[in-house]
Amino acid sequence: MDLSEANITKQVSKDDAGEGSMARELIKINFCGSTPLLWRTEDLKAARELGFVGTLVGSLARQPRQNTRLGRPLELLLEEGRLMADMERAAVSGLDSKSEDPEVSPAVVEQYYAGLENSFQEQSALALEDRKMTLTRVLTEKQKAMSVQLCTARAGLAHCPQERQFLTADWPMPQDERCKCRFQVFKDLRRRGFYLTSAGKFGGDYLVYPGDPLRFHAHFIAVCVSMDESMPLCDVLAIARLGSNVKKTVLLCSSGESQDDEREEVVYTSLQWSGMA
Amino acid sequence: MADQNKTAEVKSSNELLSPSELFEARTRSHKIPVRGQKDFLPSGSDQQRERLQQSLQEHWKLVSEERVERLGNLVKAVWIPSDQRVELLSPAGKFWQTMGFSAHGKQCLHPEEALYLMECGNLQVFYKDLPLSIQEGYETFLCSKTMSIHHYKVFGHLKRLGYVVTRFDPSRVPSQYERQLNLAQSRERPGRRLKRKRSLSPPSGHTETQEGATAMGTEEERDGNREEEDMNPMPEDTNPKLKDTNPKPENIHPKPEDTNPDDTQMAAQDDPSTTAEGCRSWWSKGGSPHPDLPGQSQNTGSPRWDFTSISFPDLGSRHQHPRSLASPDPCLLPGAVGSVGPCDVVPWLNRLNLREVRMSRREQERERDRDRYHRDVNLDREVQRCRNWTEYRDLLERRSRRRHRDRPAHLWEGEVTPLHDPSQVCLTGELMDKISVVKSTQLFEGASSLKCSNEWRISFNIYQPDTVAEFKKSTPGKPYSRMCVCSFSGPVPDLQTLKVLAFQSGDVPVTYAVEDHGDISFYCFKNFQIPKDESF
């Protein structure tokens, strides 16, 4: 099996602070278009340990034809990916658009089919051991009775263009004011220990959880607004109404003026609907 | 380039299963555990931590599971990048009923359909003789602008719910005219031509009464004689056959068994007194201003009949029942028919419904009320003085102008005039329309002339899940809706976009699927009519 890709993956993270000399793998972020995705389970686990939750957007392998629980890939917020890269815990891995599809040597194809045959033999042997009569008969006769894996993540079989790792400075993100504000807010909330997911369906930018979203409900809807721009009153009312309907507090977040060498301040205003009885 | 000799230092940076793991996977459960209740605040308690660990473990177990399928259950296919399609190498399964298309004699799938089937574990797509992983599928199949990952997420979401989702093709939307004619079904079936039934005109089975009786002129005969028929503005009640005395009898006699001895027209055709030019000598009689019609051109003015002297029997009158009608003036009959003798009216009367209408008391009252103000227009002396329709219409116009002379000049002569003249009778609804300055508009108004921007386009046709059993790709029928994919980070569709897409979609509503990090919301815009209050 051609594992050349393993070499790209196995880059040691420089930031070993407090972790001893344990080498940590960099999380591989793959872009599909302009959407950052994580494909390997260990990358998902590592991201979650860092506090980056993301959203699963693929079919679940066990039950593909339902929408309640989805499977890999994990889609990251652009802010999540960028922060991970800034923390030097992740690197963008993408296809080199300039390289053409490599010619596949017949040896590789042979290797693949040899692997299949080998698997077949082993499975037949296991079936024999298992002594299930029908299974044995079928499995030892035809290869089509054997089980094969449909890989989720790239298996590195060298028939697709090789992956390259990009420098983190090349993080493909639009650099307009709104994105900068969003990123600052994200960084700050993350620093304070909150878990964040996207809040498009709540009319905001982020849903803020006190702990892992698997176990806790969100407390806040974070809406990023520019510090200088005034917000029309009806917009304030609308978002406050919405928040009260879903039992969450609305947070208006603005990132302060960026000053050299000083950490940017993020200012929060919470809106809660209260009656006057 | 990577050094292919280096072996992997890590246990398995890929997630390949060993043969024994593959074997074990056969007995995997297919159930998804239900998620428990969430807590409100993290309390730092052990119990909470444990539950979190449990949830996480369960979560990773589900997420890390790889797809394992029986090799025989997998349909094999190959990716053809030049055509952007996936060609099947082994026969398609059940999915063929709602997905896929034929090209170059092979079964093919669109990239998004292939990717969905890969995710369902039904399809294995090969490229350069090696199978593609799901990741490679995403990265290879979803690169175009028409089928990006956003479109695929909407596609997958709807397919998983059971809908039939196909690509939108603007050229296959039936036009409004086709819809009016209900041609939608036949349009979907190319190659089946509608044959126009050709039938010979049935013969005139009616026996005619004598002269001038209201036309039983059959359509078919008119058709048959169309080339010869002239546009002479004769009164409608003459049988066109009588007009067209063309000496070509084969046009007129479609069936030999049609011999109606009473049919005077037949005799007319063979009448030697008719000339080649279709002369009409028989209906010009003394007193007509153009006595010599033979040879005259067809488009002269209508000869004047003196209706005061031609008696048209009123067989429907309740009061007089003549037992028989006298023979008409021979000069009114065609050719040399001569006198036809009196006509016995009784058999004709039997065919008329001469029963008195029995009106209930209320109906009688209603009739009386209606007639109370009824002025017989024929008694109007000015109307009697009109000799033809043109003069009558002039009279009506003069009268209406007179009526309108009593409009105050300061109101009606300036640039700005009132919206309504109160002396004119008007229904409340019409009045409301007149004085409403702001007109309501429909979504389709003006849509045909608008140009679509490149940003917005309809991507899919959606058919409901319960139609899957009878769904036919060749005649899918009218979709339930059409989908346009957008996101919260982009602009809201403006009115121009709404109009253009609604128009493109014909009579199928357009739904906007807003996709945001896996969450999909659906919006649609509908016409709304403010109800009019016409109670006052």
UniProtKB/TrEMBL annotation, chain B:
Keyword tRNA processing belongs to the record: yes
Record domain tRNA-splicing endonuclease subunit Sen54 N-terminal: where: 61-127
PANTHER family: TRNA-SPLICING ENDONUCLEASE SUBUNIT SEN54
GO process annotations (BP): tRNA-type intron splice site recognition and cleavage
Region feature (Disordered): 21-48, 174-325
Compositional bias (Acidic residues): 218-231
GO cellular component, one term: tRNA-intron endonuclease complex
Similarity comment text for this entry: Belongs to the SEN54 family.
Keyword annotations of the record: tRNA processing
Lineage start: Eukaryota, Metazoa, Chordata, Craniata, Vertebrata
Record protein name field: tRNA-splicing endonuclease subunit Sen54 N-terminal domain-containing protein
Top-level taxon in the UniProt lineage: Eukaryota
Biased composition range(s): Polar residues: 174-185, 262-276
InterPro entries recorded: tRNA_splic_suSen54, tRNA_splic_suSen54_N
Compositional bias per record (Basic and acidic residues), positions renumbered to this chain: 238-258
